[in-house]
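Good morning,

Both structures are done.
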Amino acid sequence: MFGITDYGTYIITILLFLLVPGPGNLALITSTTKGGIQGGFGAIFGVFAGDQILMWAAIAGMAAIMAAYPGAFSLVQWAGAVYLGWLGIKMLMSKPGDGPILDIKPRHYFQQSLLITLLNPKAIVFYMAFFPLFIDPARHQGLTTYLAMTMTSGALMFLYGLTSVMLTHFLAERFRANPKLGRVLEKTAGVFLIAFGIKLAVSK
Protein backbone atom coordinates (compact mmCIF):
# COMPACT_ATOMS: atom_id res chain seq x y z
CA MET A 1 0.00 0.00 0.00
CA PHE A 2 1.44 3.38 -1.12
CA GLY A 3 4.81 1.67 -1.57
CA ILE A 4 4.95 0.65 2.11
CA THR A 5 6.10 -2.89 2.83
CA ASP A 6 3.73 -4.73 5.21
CA TYR A 7 1.53 -1.77 6.15
CA GLY A 8 -0.06 -3.70 9.02
CA THR A 9 3.31 -4.33 10.66
CA TYR A 10 4.18 -0.66 10.21
CA ILE A 11 1.04 0.34 12.14
CA ILE A 12 1.71 -2.15 14.94
CA THR A 13 5.32 -0.98 15.26
CA ILE A 14 4.26 2.67 15.54
CA LEU A 15 1.72 1.77 18.24
CA LEU A 16 4.37 -0.10 20.21
CA PHE A 17 6.70 2.89 20.04
CA LEU A 18 3.91 5.18 21.25
CA LEU A 19 3.46 2.99 24.34
CA VAL A 20 7.10 3.41 25.37
CA PRO A 21 7.24 6.01 28.21
CA GLY A 22 8.94 9.22 27.15
CA PRO A 23 8.79 13.03 27.44
CA GLY A 24 5.92 13.22 24.94
CA ASN A 25 3.74 10.90 27.00
CA LEU A 26 4.60 12.83 30.14
CA ALA A 27 3.71 16.13 28.44
CA LEU A 28 0.26 14.75 27.59
CA ILE A 29 -0.34 13.57 31.15
CA THR A 30 0.89 16.67 32.98
CA SER A 31 -0.84 19.07 30.57
CA THR A 32 -4.16 17.28 31.03
CA THR A 33 -3.73 17.14 34.81
CA LYS A 34 -3.04 20.88 34.98
CA GLY A 35 -5.20 22.22 32.17
CA GLY A 36 -7.97 19.68 31.76
CA ILE A 37 -9.26 18.68 28.33
CA GLN A 38 -8.15 21.97 26.73
CA GLY A 39 -4.62 21.61 28.08
CA GLY A 40 -4.53 18.01 26.93
CA PHE A 41 -5.59 18.90 23.40
CA GLY A 42 -2.99 21.66 23.32
CA ALA A 43 -0.37 19.06 24.22
CA ILE A 44 -1.67 16.61 21.60
CA PHE A 45 -1.31 19.15 18.82
CA GLY A 46 2.11 20.19 20.16
CA VAL A 47 3.44 16.62 20.10
CA PHE A 48 1.78 16.02 16.72
CA ALA A 49 3.38 19.12 15.17
CA GLY A 50 6.76 18.31 16.68
CA ASP A 51 6.67 14.74 15.38
CA GLN A 52 5.70 15.88 11.89
CA ILE A 53 8.58 18.38 11.82
CA LEU A 54 11.06 15.73 12.98
CA MET A 55 9.82 13.15 10.50
CA TRP A 56 10.01 15.50 7.53
CA ALA A 57 13.40 16.75 8.71
CA ALA A 58 14.57 13.14 8.69
CA ILE A 59 13.15 12.66 5.22
CA ALA A 60 14.94 15.80 4.06
CA GLY A 61 18.23 14.36 5.23
CA MET A 62 18.78 16.21 8.51
CA ALA A 63 20.27 13.06 10.00
CA ALA A 64 23.08 13.21 7.44
CA ILE A 65 23.70 16.87 8.27
CA MET A 66 23.87 16.16 11.99
CA ALA A 67 26.20 13.24 11.37
CA ALA A 68 28.50 15.54 9.36
CA TYR A 69 28.33 18.26 12.01
CA PRO A 70 28.16 16.49 15.39
CA GLY A 71 28.44 19.82 17.17
CA ALA A 72 24.97 20.77 15.95
CA PHE A 73 23.57 17.48 17.20
CA SER A 74 25.20 17.88 20.62
CA LEU A 75 23.97 21.46 20.93
CA VAL A 76 20.33 20.51 20.37
CA GLN A 77 20.74 17.43 22.55
CA TRP A 78 22.07 19.46 25.48
CA ALA A 79 19.40 22.11 25.01
CA GLY A 80 16.73 19.42 25.27
CA ALA A 81 18.36 17.91 28.37
CA VAL A 82 18.56 21.28 30.12
CA TYR A 83 14.96 22.15 29.24
CA LEU A 84 13.56 18.86 30.54
CA GLY A 85 15.68 19.10 33.69
CA TRP A 86 14.52 22.67 34.31
CA LEU A 87 10.85 21.65 34.07
CA GLY A 88 11.46 18.69 36.38
CA ILE A 89 13.21 20.80 39.02
CA LYS A 90 10.40 23.36 38.96
CA MET A 91 7.92 20.58 39.62
CA LEU A 92 9.99 19.18 42.48
CA MET A 93 10.48 22.61 44.06
CA SER A 94 6.86 23.72 43.80
CA LYS A 95 4.93 24.22 47.03
CA PRO A 96 1.23 23.98 47.89
CA GLY A 97 -0.56 27.05 46.56
CA ASP A 98 1.99 27.78 43.84
CA GLY A 99 0.72 28.43 40.33
CA PRO A 100 0.89 25.59 37.80
CA ILE A 101 4.30 24.81 36.31
CA LEU A 102 2.68 24.63 32.89
CA ASP A 103 0.56 27.66 31.97
CA ILE A 104 -3.21 27.11 31.91
CA LYS A 105 -3.69 28.54 28.40
CA PRO A 106 -3.98 25.79 25.75
CA ARG A 107 -1.61 27.59 23.37
CA HIS A 108 1.07 27.46 26.04
CA TYR A 109 0.56 23.76 26.49
CA PHE A 110 0.98 23.48 22.73
CA GLN A 111 4.26 25.43 22.84
CA GLN A 112 5.50 23.43 25.83
CA SER A 113 4.81 20.06 24.21
CA LEU A 114 6.18 21.21 20.86
CA LEU A 115 9.48 22.22 22.47
CA ILE A 116 9.72 18.98 24.45
CA THR A 117 9.24 17.02 21.22
CA LEU A 118 11.59 19.07 19.05
CA LEU A 119 14.43 19.14 21.57
CA ASN A 120 15.12 15.47 21.02
CA PRO A 121 17.42 15.27 17.97
CA LYS A 122 17.77 11.51 18.28
CA ALA A 123 14.22 11.25 16.94
CA ILE A 124 15.45 12.49 13.56
CA VAL A 125 18.10 9.79 13.44
CA PHE A 126 15.52 7.22 14.54
CA TYR A 127 13.09 8.14 11.77
CA MET A 128 15.91 8.19 9.23
CA ALA A 129 16.74 4.59 10.16
CA PHE A 130 13.14 3.46 10.70
CA PHE A 131 11.39 4.56 7.50
CA PRO A 132 13.61 2.61 5.06
CA LEU A 133 12.67 -0.63 6.84
CA PHE A 134 9.12 -0.30 5.47
CA ILE A 135 9.76 1.14 2.02
CA ASP A 136 9.39 -1.18 -0.97
CA PRO A 137 12.02 -0.03 -3.52
CA ALA A 138 10.07 -1.65 -6.37
CA ARG A 139 6.79 0.12 -5.53
CA HIS A 140 8.11 3.30 -3.95
CA GLN A 141 5.98 6.30 -5.00
CA GLY A 142 8.27 9.07 -3.85
CA LEU A 143 6.53 11.85 -1.91
CA THR A 144 3.27 9.86 -1.81
CA THR A 145 4.94 7.05 0.11
CA TYR A 146 6.53 9.42 2.64
CA LEU A 147 3.25 11.30 3.03
CA ALA A 148 1.39 8.06 3.72
CA MET A 149 3.98 7.07 6.36
CA THR A 150 3.97 10.41 8.16
CA MET A 151 0.17 10.79 8.05
CA THR A 152 -0.32 7.25 9.32
CA SER A 153 2.09 7.88 12.17
CA GLY A 154 0.43 11.21 12.90
CA ALA A 155 -3.08 9.73 12.92
CA LEU A 156 -2.03 6.96 15.30
CA MET A 157 -0.29 9.48 17.55
CA PHE A 158 -3.43 11.66 17.62
CA LEU A 159 -5.67 8.70 18.54
CA TYR A 160 -3.20 7.56 21.18
CA GLY A 161 -2.96 11.09 22.56
CA LEU A 162 -6.75 11.45 22.65
CA THR A 163 -7.05 8.20 24.59
CA SER A 164 -4.33 9.28 27.02
CA VAL A 165 -5.92 12.70 27.56
CA MET A 166 -9.41 11.31 28.22
CA LEU A 167 -8.11 8.66 30.60
CA THR A 168 -5.87 11.16 32.40
CA HIS A 169 -8.73 13.66 32.70
CA PHE A 170 -10.92 10.97 34.24
CA LEU A 171 -8.24 10.08 36.77
CA ALA A 172 -7.31 13.73 37.39
CA GLU A 173 -10.76 14.40 38.86
CA ARG A 174 -9.98 11.84 41.54
CA PHE A 175 -6.55 13.38 42.15
CA ARG A 176 -8.11 16.83 42.60
CA ALA A 177 -10.39 15.37 45.25
CA ASN A 178 -7.25 14.27 47.10
CA PRO A 179 -4.59 17.06 46.95
CA LYS A 180 -1.90 14.80 48.42
CA LEU A 181 -2.22 12.35 45.54
CA GLY A 182 -2.06 15.23 43.09
CA ARG A 183 1.20 16.48 44.60
CA VAL A 184 2.66 12.97 44.50
CA LEU A 185 1.82 12.84 40.79
CA GLU A 186 3.46 16.23 40.18
CA LYS A 187 6.63 15.25 42.06
CA THR A 188 6.76 11.93 40.22
CA ALA A 189 6.43 13.75 36.90
CA GLY A 190 9.27 16.06 37.96
CA VAL A 191 11.55 13.11 38.73
CA PHE A 192 10.79 11.52 35.35
CA LEU A 193 11.46 14.76 33.50
CA ILE A 194 14.84 15.10 35.18
CA ALA A 195 15.59 11.45 34.39
CA PHE A 196 14.67 11.96 30.73
CA GLY A 197 16.91 15.04 30.64
CA ILE A 198 19.86 13.12 32.10
CA LYS A 199 19.29 10.23 29.70
CA LEU A 200 19.26 12.62 26.76
CA ALA A 201 22.45 14.34 27.96
CA VAL A 202 24.52 11.19 28.52
CA SER A 203 23.24 9.08 25.62
CA LYS A 204 25.60 8.61 22.65
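Second structure follows.
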Amino acid sequence: MIDWIAFDADDTLWKNEEYYIAGRNRFLEILQKYGLDTADIENYDQFEVGNIQYFGYGVMSFVLSMIEIGIEITEERIHPSDIQKLIQLAKEMLSQEVEVFEGVSLLLERLSAKFPLMLITKGDLLHQQRKFAASGLAQYFRAIEVVSDKSSAVYEGILNRYNIDPARFLMVGNSLRSDILPILELGGWAVHLADHPTWSHEDDPANQLDQEHYLEVEGISQVWDKMVEADLFSKQV
Protein backbone atom coordinates (compact mmCIF):
# COMPACT_ATOMS: atom_id res chain seq x y z
CA MET A 1 0.00 0.00 0.00
CA ILE A 2 1.10 3.58 -0.64
CA ASP A 3 1.85 5.36 2.64
CA TRP A 4 2.37 8.94 1.41
CA ILE A 5 1.42 10.89 -1.71
CA ALA A 6 3.31 14.04 -2.70
CA PHE A 7 2.39 16.68 -5.25
CA ASP A 8 4.41 19.18 -7.20
CA ALA A 9 2.89 22.67 -7.10
CA ASP A 10 3.58 24.88 -10.15
CA ASP A 11 1.76 23.64 -13.26
CA THR A 12 0.56 20.60 -11.32
CA LEU A 13 -1.88 22.15 -8.85
CA TRP A 14 -2.01 25.70 -10.21
CA LYS A 15 -1.08 27.64 -13.33
CA ASN A 16 2.45 28.94 -13.61
CA GLU A 17 4.25 28.49 -16.93
CA GLU A 18 1.82 30.69 -18.85
CA TYR A 19 2.92 33.67 -16.73
CA TYR A 20 6.55 33.01 -17.63
CA ILE A 21 5.63 32.78 -21.31
CA ALA A 22 3.89 36.15 -21.03
CA GLY A 23 6.97 37.51 -19.25
CA ARG A 24 9.25 36.31 -22.04
CA ASN A 25 7.00 38.03 -24.57
CA ARG A 26 7.23 41.29 -22.60
CA PHE A 27 11.00 40.91 -22.59
CA LEU A 28 11.07 40.47 -26.38
CA GLU A 29 8.91 43.55 -26.86
CA ILE A 30 11.20 45.66 -24.69
CA LEU A 31 14.39 44.61 -26.51
CA GLN A 32 13.05 44.85 -30.06
CA LYS A 33 13.57 48.63 -30.04
CA TYR A 34 17.34 48.06 -29.92
CA GLY A 35 17.43 46.47 -33.38
CA LEU A 36 18.57 43.08 -32.15
CA ASP A 37 18.42 39.84 -34.07
CA THR A 38 15.42 37.86 -32.88
CA ALA A 39 17.55 34.73 -32.54
CA ASP A 40 19.84 36.52 -30.08
CA ILE A 41 16.91 37.45 -27.87
CA GLU A 42 15.37 33.99 -28.06
CA ASN A 43 18.58 32.46 -26.68
CA TYR A 44 17.32 33.72 -23.32
CA ASP A 45 16.19 30.26 -22.16
CA GLN A 46 19.69 28.82 -22.44
CA PHE A 47 21.09 31.86 -20.67
CA GLU A 48 18.59 31.44 -17.81
CA VAL A 49 19.47 27.75 -17.40
CA GLY A 50 23.11 28.74 -17.02
CA ASN A 51 22.15 31.06 -14.16
CA ILE A 52 20.32 28.40 -12.14
CA GLN A 53 23.54 27.57 -10.32
CA TYR A 54 23.68 31.18 -9.06
CA PHE A 55 20.07 32.27 -8.67
CA GLY A 56 18.15 29.00 -8.39
CA TYR A 57 14.59 28.71 -9.73
CA GLY A 58 11.75 31.20 -9.68
CA VAL A 59 10.71 34.70 -10.66
CA MET A 60 13.78 36.48 -9.27
CA SER A 61 16.12 34.22 -11.23
CA PHE A 62 13.94 34.70 -14.30
CA VAL A 63 14.05 38.50 -14.18
CA LEU A 64 17.68 38.83 -13.05
CA SER A 65 18.62 36.74 -16.09
CA MET A 66 16.54 39.04 -18.29
CA ILE A 67 18.32 42.10 -16.93
CA GLU A 68 21.76 40.54 -17.35
CA ILE A 69 21.22 39.34 -20.91
CA GLY A 70 19.52 42.64 -21.79
CA ILE A 71 22.64 44.53 -20.70
CA GLU A 72 24.90 42.08 -22.50
CA ILE A 73 23.22 41.81 -25.88
CA THR A 74 22.50 45.55 -26.13
CA GLU A 75 26.15 46.20 -25.27
CA GLU A 76 25.00 48.25 -22.25
CA ARG A 77 22.67 50.39 -24.36
CA ILE A 78 19.53 49.23 -22.56
CA HIS A 79 17.88 52.24 -20.94
CA PRO A 80 17.32 52.33 -17.16
CA SER A 81 13.60 52.78 -17.83
CA ASP A 82 13.55 49.40 -19.59
CA ILE A 83 15.37 47.77 -16.68
CA GLN A 84 12.71 49.31 -14.45
CA LYS A 85 10.03 47.69 -16.62
CA LEU A 86 11.65 44.30 -16.00
CA ILE A 87 11.73 44.94 -12.26
CA GLN A 88 8.05 45.86 -12.40
CA LEU A 89 7.41 42.63 -14.31
CA ALA A 90 8.96 40.70 -11.43
CA LYS A 91 6.68 42.42 -8.94
CA GLU A 92 3.64 41.65 -11.06
CA MET A 93 4.59 37.98 -11.37
CA LEU A 94 5.30 37.69 -7.64
CA SER A 95 1.86 39.09 -6.84
CA GLN A 96 0.01 37.12 -9.53
CA GLU A 97 -3.26 35.59 -8.32
CA VAL A 98 -3.02 31.83 -7.82
CA GLU A 99 -5.32 29.98 -10.23
CA VAL A 100 -5.83 26.37 -9.18
CA PHE A 101 -6.55 23.88 -11.95
CA GLU A 102 -10.06 22.51 -12.20
CA GLY A 103 -10.48 19.23 -10.34
CA VAL A 104 -7.55 19.74 -7.95
CA SER A 105 -9.58 20.45 -4.82
CA LEU A 106 -11.83 17.44 -5.35
CA LEU A 107 -8.86 15.13 -5.92
CA LEU A 108 -7.01 16.38 -2.85
CA GLU A 109 -10.12 16.08 -0.71
CA ARG A 110 -10.60 12.45 -1.75
CA LEU A 111 -6.95 11.50 -1.42
CA SER A 112 -6.37 13.27 1.90
CA ALA A 113 -9.11 11.14 3.42
CA LYS A 114 -7.00 8.06 2.68
CA PHE A 115 -3.36 9.21 2.69
CA PRO A 116 -1.17 11.88 4.25
CA LEU A 117 -0.30 14.38 1.51
CA MET A 118 2.89 16.35 1.05
CA LEU A 119 3.70 19.29 -1.22
CA ILE A 120 7.21 19.25 -2.70
CA THR A 121 7.99 22.33 -4.75
CA LYS A 122 11.14 24.12 -5.83
CA GLY A 123 11.76 27.82 -6.16
CA ASP A 124 11.92 30.90 -3.98
CA LEU A 125 10.83 30.04 -0.42
CA LEU A 126 8.79 33.18 0.23
CA HIS A 127 7.03 33.09 -3.13
CA GLN A 128 6.16 29.40 -2.91
CA GLN A 129 4.87 29.76 0.64
CA ARG A 130 2.78 32.75 -0.42
CA LYS A 131 1.25 30.85 -3.34
CA PHE A 132 0.54 27.83 -1.16
CA ALA A 133 -1.26 29.98 1.40
CA ALA A 134 -3.25 31.79 -1.33
CA SER A 135 -4.23 28.56 -3.09
CA GLY A 136 -6.73 27.50 -0.43
CA LEU A 137 -5.29 23.97 -0.51
CA ALA A 138 -3.29 23.98 2.73
CA GLN A 139 -6.01 22.06 4.60
CA TYR A 140 -5.28 18.93 2.56
CA PHE A 141 -1.55 18.70 3.27
CA ARG A 142 0.34 17.32 6.25
CA ALA A 143 3.70 18.70 5.11
CA ILE A 144 5.27 21.16 2.68
CA GLU A 145 8.86 21.07 1.42
CA VAL A 146 10.30 23.96 -0.60
CA VAL A 147 13.59 22.88 -2.14
CA SER A 148 16.23 24.48 -4.35
CA ASP A 149 16.35 21.46 -6.66
CA LYS A 150 14.61 18.13 -7.16
CA SER A 151 17.31 15.51 -7.49
CA SER A 152 17.08 11.94 -6.27
CA ALA A 153 19.37 12.92 -3.37
CA VAL A 154 16.99 15.72 -2.33
CA TYR A 155 14.00 13.38 -2.47
CA GLU A 156 15.91 10.74 -0.54
CA GLY A 157 16.64 13.26 2.20
CA ILE A 158 12.96 14.18 2.46
CA LEU A 159 11.87 10.54 2.60
CA ASN A 160 14.44 9.81 5.28
CA ARG A 161 13.25 12.72 7.42
CA TYR A 162 9.69 11.46 7.32
CA ASN A 163 10.74 7.81 7.63
CA ILE A 164 9.02 6.91 4.34
CA ASP A 165 9.90 3.79 2.38
CA PRO A 166 10.41 4.93 -1.25
CA ALA A 167 8.53 1.85 -2.47
CA ARG A 168 5.48 3.09 -0.56
CA PHE A 169 5.67 6.67 -1.84
CA LEU A 170 3.86 8.24 -4.81
CA MET A 171 4.80 11.55 -6.49
CA VAL A 172 2.42 13.43 -8.82
CA GLY A 173 3.80 16.11 -11.12
CA ASN A 174 4.10 17.55 -14.62
CA SER A 175 7.90 17.46 -15.03
CA LEU A 176 9.69 14.28 -16.02
CA ARG A 177 13.05 15.76 -14.98
CA SER A 178 11.97 17.01 -11.56
CA ASP A 179 8.93 15.02 -10.44
CA ILE A 180 9.10 11.63 -12.12
CA LEU A 181 12.59 10.33 -12.95
CA PRO A 182 14.20 10.98 -9.53
CA ILE A 183 11.36 9.15 -7.74
CA LEU A 184 11.50 6.17 -10.09
CA GLU A 185 15.26 6.04 -9.55
CA LEU A 186 14.62 5.64 -5.82
CA GLY A 187 12.09 2.85 -6.41
CA GLY A 188 9.00 4.94 -5.76
CA TRP A 189 5.80 5.46 -7.74
CA ALA A 190 5.13 8.43 -10.01
CA VAL A 191 2.15 9.86 -11.89
CA HIS A 192 3.08 12.12 -14.80
CA LEU A 193 0.60 14.82 -15.86
CA ALA A 194 1.61 14.69 -19.50
CA ASP A 195 -0.67 17.45 -20.79
CA HIS A 196 0.16 20.02 -18.12
CA PRO A 197 2.56 22.75 -19.34
CA THR A 198 6.22 22.65 -18.41
CA TRP A 199 9.32 24.77 -18.96
CA SER A 200 11.47 23.36 -21.77
CA HIS A 201 14.33 22.82 -19.28
CA GLU A 202 12.10 20.36 -17.42
CA ASP A 203 11.53 18.16 -20.46
CA ASP A 204 13.37 14.86 -20.39
CA PRO A 205 13.11 11.81 -22.63
CA ALA A 206 10.87 9.16 -21.14
CA ASN A 207 12.88 6.29 -22.57
CA GLN A 208 14.30 4.78 -19.40
CA LEU A 209 11.25 4.80 -17.18
CA ASP A 210 10.43 2.09 -14.69
CA GLN A 211 7.21 1.13 -16.44
CA GLU A 212 5.91 -0.86 -13.47
CA HIS A 213 5.92 2.17 -11.19
CA TYR A 214 5.22 4.82 -13.83
CA LEU A 215 1.70 6.05 -14.51
CA GLU A 216 0.71 8.66 -17.08
CA VAL A 217 -2.44 10.73 -17.28
CA GLU A 218 -3.50 13.68 -19.40
CA GLY A 219 -4.61 15.85 -16.51
CA ILE A 220 -5.18 16.08 -12.78
CA SER A 221 -8.79 14.88 -13.04
CA GLN A 222 -7.59 11.45 -14.20
CA VAL A 223 -5.23 10.75 -11.28
CA TRP A 224 -7.79 9.03 -9.02
CA ASP A 225 -9.00 6.64 -11.72
CA LYS A 226 -5.43 5.83 -12.77
CA MET A 227 -4.55 4.96 -9.18
CA VAL A 228 -7.60 2.73 -8.94
CA GLU A 229 -6.66 1.07 -12.23
CA ALA A 230 -3.14 0.42 -10.90
CA ASP A 231 -4.63 -0.97 -7.66
CA LEU A 232 -2.59 1.50 -5.58
CA PHE A 233 -5.22 1.72 -2.85
CA SER A 234 -4.57 -1.85 -1.80
CA LYS A 235 -1.45 -3.07 -3.59
CA GLN A 236 1.36 -4.42 -1.43
CA VAL A 237 4.63 -3.14 -2.86
